[in-house]
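fwd from M.: "can u put these together and see what the complex looks like"

so here's what she sent:
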Amino acid sequence: MIPYILYVLFALGGAAIYLAMPKPSGSQRRAALVLGVGVIAGLLALMSMHFVAPNSNNFFFYMFAGLAILAAGRVVTHPVPTYSAVYFALVILCVAVLLVIQRAEFLAVALIIIYAGAILVTYAFVIMLAQQSGAVSTDTRAREPLMAILVSFVIAGAIAGKIEQIDAVPVKMTAQVPQAVTDVPIETTLPATEMESGHTKAIGEIMFGPYLVVVELSGILLLIAMVGAIAISRKQVPIEDTGEPKLPVGQIGREVPPF
Amino acid sequence: MPDPGSYILLGAVLFAIGMVGFLARRNLIVMFLSTEIMFQGVVLNVVAFSRLHGRLTGDAYGLFLLVIAAVEAGLALGLVVLLYRRKHTLDAESWSAMSG
Amino acid sequence: MISDADIILIKEPKLSAADKLYLTQIAEGVKVTLNHLFFKPKVTVQYPEEKRKLRVDNYRGVHRLNRDPDDRVACVACFMCETACPAHCIHIVAAESPWEDREKYPQQFDIDELRCIYCGMCEEACPVDAIELTTEYDIVGQSRDEMIFDKEKLLNVYDQTKDIKPRKNPKISGYQGTGDREKYDQLRERLEKMVGEREPGESKSTGTEATEGNAQ
Amino acid sequence: MLSWLENQVVFSAVLSLVLITGMMTCVAYCIYFERKISAWIQDRQGPNRVGFLGLFGNFHFWGLGQPIADGAKFFLKEDIIPARVDKPLFILAPAISMIVALIGFVVIPWGGSYMLGETLMNVQVANPDVGLLYILGVGSMGVYGVVLGGWASNNKYSMYGAVRATAQMLSYEIPMGVAILVVVLASGQLRLEEIVLGQVGGNGLWNIVLHPVSFLILLITLFAETNRAPFDLAEAEQELVGGFHTEYSSMKFAMFFLGEYVHMITGSAFICVLFLGGWELSFFGIGPAFPGTGIEDVGLISVIIKIGVLAVKVAFFIFLFMLVRWTLPRFRFDQLMRLAWKGLIPVSLGILLLTVFGLYMGWQRSVLFNLGGEIAIVAATLGVVVLANKPVTGRQDNMPAVTQPLGG
C-alpha cells in the first residue's frame, strides 16, 4: 500500500516541479507552491503514520525535512542563480539540523563549515563574477524538464518501492548488535556509552582507526584536486589587440621617482 | 529520533530533486548546486543506515562524502571559470558542439 | 583601455630587512596614536559655550540698519542696496519722509537672511552707510518667516551691536570685532589712508535707472 | 522560589535573554567608545553633548546618552529601498548579518559553573560537543550578509565590496581554522568550557604562553573576519563609497553596523577563551587564583567576578580593535591576499605540524619546545621573505603585462 501512495505523491511532486520550472512563457509558481506543499505534507504525514514512533524530536524532524524538500525544489527551479545558492544554503542548514537530530553533531557542523562556509561561498563568488545582466535564456528555459523529472522520480520511486522492507523499529545503539545485521567486517560498533561521551570522539576513533587509509587517501585526493583546480584556472587568456602600439615588456610606462 | 525509514525516504526525495536540477537546468552553476543536493540526500541516507545498524560507519562515510564534495566543487568551479572565459556564457548547451 | 605610454611606474622605495616586516612601522604608528589618545590636548572648541576668535575683523555676518544720531533710521530708501544685491534678498517699501532733512524713508525694509549670500554689496552701495554687516554669525530661527528680518529687527541688531562696532559714517570709525586688536588697528590705518587718497565723487553714476524696476 | 530556574534549559533561556540585552547595550556603548577613541586619537572631543535631557543642568555625563540618541535616530530615519534592488535579498541580508553575529555567543562559557540551589549550572547558553566548530561554522556564515547585501543592492560598488568580502573570507578562514586547530590539539577538546578548564588552575597554562604565534594569527584573522580595519576592504569608503552597505539606510544599515560590533565582541570572547584562560583571573596559571574564583567556587559572587574578568579581557581586545583601526592604513587587495596565502597559512601550517610533533613526543605542555619551535618557524618564514627581496605585503613587481582577470 505504502509504495503506491508514494508513487502518487512522487507523480504529483514531479508535476509541481514541472510547473515551477523556469519557462519562457513564465512558470505557474503559485499552483506549483500549493501542489508542492501539499505533496510535502502528504509525504510527512505518511512518514509519521508509518515510520516514526512518537518522540519529542519529531516536530523538528518534520519541520526541517519539509523545509529541506521545499528549498531543494526551489534550488532547481529558481530562475536566478543567486537565489538558487541562497536556497541551497537553506537546504544545507536543514540537513545539518536533521543530522543533529540523528546525533551526528560533528558531521552537521562539518557540513556547515565546508558547504556553507567554503563551497557555497565559492559558488556565490563565481555567480557574481559571471553575472549576466538580466534574465538570460540559460536560466529561463529548462532543458527537457519532463524527461528529467520522469527519470529522476522513477529512480526515487524505485527506492520508495523497497521502503517498506526497512525494519520499522530502529536497532538500539548497544554493544549487543548482532554481527549479522551488518556486513562490514571491521568492528566499528560502538557501545551506547561511548556515543554518550560524544559523537566527535567516537567518529574520531573510527576515522583514525579502521579508516585511517581512507583518510590519507582523501587527503591525497584533496591535494590532487587543488593542483588540478589551480592548473585549470590559472591559464591566462590574452587580451584582444587594440591596435595601439605596444612597448616590449619591461619598458611600459614612464619611471617616476617615489614621492 | 525518527526511525531511518523517514530519512531514507527524505534522502531519496532530495536525490531525485537534485537529479531533476542536474538534468533539466542549463546554467552550469545551478547544475553543480543540484549535484550538491544529491550529495545531501546521500549523506542523510548513509547516516540513517548507520543508525539503523547502530554503528558510526555511515558518519565516517558522510565525512568522506564531504571531502568528495569539496574536491568536486573545486574542480567544477575551475572548469566553470575556464568554460566561461571561452564562451562568456554559463549555458551548458553552448558546449554541445561535440555531441553527435 | 589605457595605452602603455600613459602608465606611470613609481619606483618602490628600497626597504631594509627590518622594514619588510612592517613591525617597526606598526609599533611607531601605535605609539603615535596612543600618544594622541592619552596625552595630546584636545582642540575641539565647545561652540555655544566658548567661541573662537574670528580670523578676520571685517567678517560679514548679519545685517543691521544704522540709526543716525537722532535715533532715526539712517536709511533714505534710495534702493541702491536692493539694486546692488545679487541675491535679491532686500525688499524696501519707500514712503515720504516725515523729516525735513531727506525726501524718503523706508516704511518697510526686509532682508531675507536665508537668501542672502553675505557678499557685502549692499554695504558698498549704500550712499549714507545705513546698512552694514556686523560680525554676528550665529543667527537662528525656527521658521523661514522668522529669518526674514524686518526694519525693527534690523534696527534692533544695530542697538545690540553698536557698542562693538560703531557706525561707519561719517568716517571710518573702527570696526571693533571680536578680533585681534593690533591687527585691526593696522587694518584701520590702511583703510583710512585709502579713503583719504580717493577722489570725492568718483563713481556714483550707475544704479539709479534700476531703482523702481526691482521694487515690488 | 527560584526552583523553576534549576533546569539547564530554563537557565540557558534566561541567560541568553540577559546576554542579548547586555550584548546590545555593550554594542551601543562600543559604538560610543569607538567614536570617543577615534576622536581622542584625532585630538577631538567626540560625542559629549547628549546627557539626560538637561536634567543635570549643563553637565552632560560625557555624552553617555549618545547611544540612546543614536538608536532613536536609526529607528526613526527614513528607510529607503532603492528602486532597482533585489528586494527580498536586500531585506534579508542585514538580518542574516545580525543574526549570525548574535547566535555565535551562545557557546562562550561566560563564568564557569554556578550552584543554583541544588543543581550545578553552566553559565553558558549551550555547551555542545562541538562548541568550537560551531563558532567556526557560524563565523563562516557571517559573510552571507555582506555578499547578499552587496549583490542585491544592484550597485557596482556594493558588488565589488561583496566580491572582496568573499575572497577575503575564504582566504582568512584557512589560517584561522588552523590556528584554532592548534589549540584543539594542545588541549584535546572541542568543548570551549573544557578548553578554559584546561588553562585554569595550578597546572594550567594559558594557551597564549604555549602558542603565542597562533594567538597572533588568530587575532589577525579575527580582524579580517569582522571586516575591521585594516581589513575593511569590503566597505572601504575611499574606494567603494560604502561597499556592501552603500545602498542601506536607517535600521537596515544599523543592523549591519551592530552586527559588526557583536561579531567583534563574540570574536574577542572567543579568543579570550581559547588563548587567555577565559574567565580565569590568575596570570598564566601561575600562582593561586583570586580567592573565591577557582574552578571549585560556584557561588554567585564568584560567578559575577568571573564574568567581570572575561568582560575586562574582552574590553581590552575591543580597545585593541579600535586602536588598530585608527592606526593602520587599509591593505591593498593583493597585499591582503599575499598576507594570507604567503604569510599566515605557511606559518600556521608549520605550527600545526610542530604541535602534532610535540603531541607525538609528549612535549605538548613544554613552553620551551613550543616557543622555540614557533620562533624557528616564524624566523624561517621571515627569512624566506627577506631573502626573497619582496615584502609579504608589498607591491608586486613585474606583473605579467598581458594578462586579464576572469571574465574579461
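replying to her w this: Chain A has a mean pLDDT of 74.
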